[in-house]
Amino acid sequence: MKKTDRKSIDRIIQAALKEDIGKGDVTTKAIIPASQKGTAAIYAKEPGVVAGLFVAKEVFKKLDGNSKWKNYAAEGDAVTKGQKIAEVTGNLRALLSGERTALNFLQRISGIATATRKFIETLADTNVKILDTRKTAPGLRLLDKYGVNAGGGTNHRFGLYDMVLIKDNHIEAAGGIKNAVNRVRKKYGEKYKVEVETTNLIEVQEAIDAGADIIMLDNMTISQMKKAVKLIKGKCKTEASGNVDLKRIKKIASTGVDFISVGSLTHSVKALDLSMKISNKKRV
């Protein structure tokens, strides 16, 4: 992970801890002596793919710089129900105060990785790549997309700044696909890949003629997608999008598209059920 990404994650963790702890954990302060130390283990309560361990580790490190973390599973590992995945030792107040924030991050990222892995495994006998979308939790995009990577998926654009994606409203405002693509090329030349969203074969042909690098086949039927791929004939890459689920994805892949984007990986993620248990408490 890039140094700039690490700094962004650090800010995300700081904001999450401030949100949860605020002026102080009043329950823990009343019950636990300031010097008491302990060990906590994190367990999987259901099978899945674990991801984001380094984020949970940093949560506790922020609260206790001397805390010690040990992984019992690696990023992207499949884990079973009841499996111990990590352990942290340190100031007991820090462990208890950081528990929910650490688990919130770890459960969400692992849930995304788990969902992604299911799609990847379903298409294991194909060359189709699974993409994520910008339908992420505000402020958590970096971690959401990390979860997709950990599950074996591929990141689409991170934001509005790193790729051109001409959508229906852009096309409407520009007066057509050709006008929209021409305006992009005029302003940026070949600096950015240009993807065009299409909903029917007429628009697909317009995108081909306009020189799109990628054509998105949005909410098309299986039959329409097959015809679109045949029409494109490899002139550019193809991405299927809309109404994608595990039941339908094999049929979508059979149309010959290069990519399938799945918004539900991040916008409807089910957190992986994890728990943290304190043990080995001792006074110093």
Structure description:
The chain has 284 residues and is α/β, with parallel strands linked by helices. It folds into 2 domains: 3-115 and 270-282, Alpha-Beta Complex (Aldehyde Oxidoreductase, domain 3), CATH 3.90.1170; 121-267, Aldolase class I (TIM Barrel, Alpha-Beta Barrel). The protein is 44% helix and 20% strand. The strands form 3 sheets. It has a 6-stranded parallel β-sheet with strand order 6-11-10-9-8-7. A 4-stranded antiparallel β-sheet has the order 3-5-1-12, with helices on one face. Strands 2-4 form a two-stranded antiparallel ribbon. The longest helix has 31 residues, at 92-122. It is elongated. It starts with a helix and ends with a strand. The mean pLDDT is 96.
Strand order of the largest sheet: 6-11-10-9-8-7
Q: Briefly note the structural class of the backbone.
A: alpha/beta
Sheet having the most strands: 6 strands, parallel
Number of strands: 12
Number of separate domains: 2
Shape: elongated
What's this entry about, in short?
The protein is an alpha/beta fold and 284 residues long.
Descriptive key words:
alpha/beta, six-stranded parallel beta sheet, 11 helices, 2 domains, 284 residues, TIM Barrel, Aldehyde Oxidoreductase, domain 3
